[in-house]
Amino acid sequence: MPLKLDNIDTDQIIPARFLKSTTRDEKFYGDNLFRDWRYLPDGTPDPSFVLNDPRYGGEILLAGQNFGSGSSREHAAWAIAGYGFRVVIAGSFADIHRNNELNNFVLPVAVSEPFLSELFDTVLADPSAMVEVNVPEQKVTNLATGRSETFELNSFKKYCLMNAMDDIDYLLAHKSEIEKYEAGRLH
Length: 187
Description:
The chain contains nine helices and seven strands; from the N terminus they run E-H-H-H-E-H-E-H-E-H-E-E-E-H-H-H. It has about 190 residues and is of the alpha/beta class. The strands form two sheets. Strands 1-2-3-4 form a four-stranded parallel beta sheet. A three-stranded antiparallel beta sheet has the order 5-6-7, covered by helices on one side. Helix 5 (about 95-105) links the parallel strand 3 (about 85-90) and strand 4 (about 105-110). Helix 4 (about 75-85) packs across helix 5. The mean pLDDT is about 95.
């Protein structure tokens, strides 16, 4: 899904008026992802917005530089995940938003400007073009051109993503080791 814009902030990802909701329902946030861009004032989908373009789909969002800037609202990551995106490829990410995405099983992938430009050109020219994201190898491949680029991902978050674990799941998986360590410290 190509959203060729820089400086997409968290208020554009999920407008502040949706932060009042007490739900954690992913569908609610996903339905309101990019709300003010996706819908016209009367609530009907804006046909000119890329998420409403039936030619595009998939689980990867392409965006420009500085994705997720602005406030640190975790709701923005909830909206991205709730819409169904599992990967966001951008030139750069705001640090807090990057971590919020990782904590919500969305992989933020920062790539170079030339490679990002190539990905946009490929997808805009052929909406059915495929992009492969390989987490174990930390590599993105433009299957149309065969070109690849590696991305950074810390080993802990990589392990958690590959094993479908959040931070709490990880700690619980090591509960007996933690308890043994703590018991040894008390004596």
